[in-house]
Design a protein that fits this description.
CATH architecture: Sandwich
CATH topology: Jelly Rolls
Number of domains: 1
Number of strands: 11
Largest sheet: 6 strands, antiparallel
Radius of gyration: 23 Å
Helix content: 10-25%
Length: about 220
């Protein structure tokens, strides 16, 4: 009987360690650039609105919002997919933008940063660099570079993932994100939309918690029998 009890407890623990953890995902931040209410091509005005919305931008000519009245339908995506709405952010030749997310990096968490990336039809695409940053340090502590989108009317999802358990030096700092058109090709332009940042506990941490909880319940039931 005791052997069966031990085997059962081990099985519960193993299942908890390998169980999916998608339900524990917490969305920290999203941005779809809708509702800013600016005119296509109003570079300086768009930059001011982005700044008021919590973003810091490189310069007025490097960052702009393009409502669908003239931008996406004519030059970017045709037709415009419903999931991209009517407004997005465009970057060109070395432009970048970033923001502090107002959350503190916690230990043993996995952070994910994703966005939609596409190009202007009549211009070459550019490489996009995505960074996690802390305490407004635009140099960032983790980044990945994604190749340009070279096909017209095509958009892709870019994602970077970072595990705070692998670098405890960032714990307790304020988390931020940065997007950079890092190719700087003459005339190159990229578009960014549907930014999302989320966090989940490390799978191993969740598994241990679940295993402990499951084990306690199991032991309690065995004692009561």
């Amino acid at each position: 009987m005791r052997t069966r009890w031990i085997i059962s407890l081990i099985a519960v623990s193993v299942l908890a360690l390998v169980a999916p953890t998608h339900a524990d995902t917490t969305v920290i931040f999203t941005e779809d650039f809708e509702g800013y209410g600016v005119a296509d091509g109003a570079f300086a005005g768009n930059t001011a609105i982005l700044t008021n919305g919590g973003w810091t931008v490189a310069d007025p000519d490097g960052n702009l919002l393009n409502p669908a009245d003239t931008g996406p339908t004519a030059d970017w995506l045709n037709p415009v997919p419903a999931e991209l709405g009517t407004t997005f952010l465009a970057l060109r030749k070395g432009g970048w933008f970033w923001r502090d997310l107002g959350v503190t990096i916690e230990a043993n968490k996995v952070y994910t940063f994703s966005l939609t990336h596409f190009k202007r039809d009549d211009q070459p695409g550019d490489i996009v660099q995505m960074r996690f940053m802390t305490d407004s340090d635009v140099g960032g502590f983790y980044s990945e570079v994604f190749e340009s989108v070279d096909v017209n009317d095509t958009y892709v999802t870019r994602t970077i993932t970072w595990d705070s358990g692998a670098n405890a030096s960032q714990n307790g700092k304020s988390l931020g994100i940065l997007v950079f058109d890092s190719n700087g090709v003459a005339g190159g332009q990229v578009a960014i939309d549907n930014i999302s940042v989320s966090v989940i506990p490390e799978p191993a941490t969740l598994g241990l918690v679940a295993a402990f909880g499951g084990g306690i319940i199991f032991i309690r039931r065995r004692i009561m029998m």
